[in-house]
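HUMAN: Mind making up another protein with tokenized structure?

ASSISTANT:
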Amino acid sequence: MILPLALAIGGLVVLLVAAEIMIRGAVGGARILKISPHVIGLTVIAFGTSAPELFVSLKAALHGHDGIAIGNVVGSNIANILLMIGTVGVIYPFACGDPALRRDGIMLLLSTVVFVILCHAGMIERWHGWVMLTVLAGYLFYCYREDRKTSLAGDESVHAKEVDEFDNLPSSMPKAALYTILGLAGVIFGARMLVDGAVDVARLLGVSETVIGITMVALGTSMPELATTIVAAVRRHNDVALGNIIGSNIFNTLGILGAVAVVKPISIPQEIMDSDLWVMVGVTVIFVAAALSLRSLGRPIAIAFFLAYGLFVIGQFTTFPVTALAGG
């Protein structure tokens, strides 16, 4: 048990450090090239913070571990909402009301509906993946046009503000390129370590790969989003913090699953269909409804979300035998 767990944890550490290096390199390079901040926020940062989920799910799917590939995305979406609101909201309550949140919240609901429909088909095929990526590209282009209007009007868009959360960026293009390349290589290596370790941990604990994907793997790959959200909340950039959560979940649902399905079709585990999918749907609907109707997501809501995530994780493991731990 010790070696597989160490491999999985080591993979998580490599993944998180490498993702941070890659994001800083990419953002620094984009700024040197004078790419507009809202384009950087929409593309570079969105991809960078979701890179761990992408490479972990891709690695898992290519090696036949569809439970981890799907569980990682479903679990990340749940963690992004319950854990991030629960953790960050206690530090500083989220203020709602930014017009972009309504647009992005509605898109999150639509992408969730698309995912539910595909899950009922039992398999996410390659053409499904192309459709998902096309929808995501159309959404990003629409956001770009809307954010550009905001920028021309003299206001700073939510996606542009995301760039301000990154300090100490590389100051030269060679250094930015080195950061990006090394970070990407580290993300790929860390993803391999994490998946290999997670598969062995699941086998030794006597639980399904889906459970490990939804809990340990998803929690680990969500750390970049959690880190940027905490920084935004501490700086009282509440619109950025909420935008990070919503944007990450949209990218997870359409971008990651779409990209993985284009490379290799993914089968949907029955465990996902039985309960986890509906937990994700319920959590998403509650979150979007609260973000669009309330003036703020205060500490009582944050505490409720945090406790709900704890219960969700505990519920994933209630059926596995305790003796599996001792036997490992």
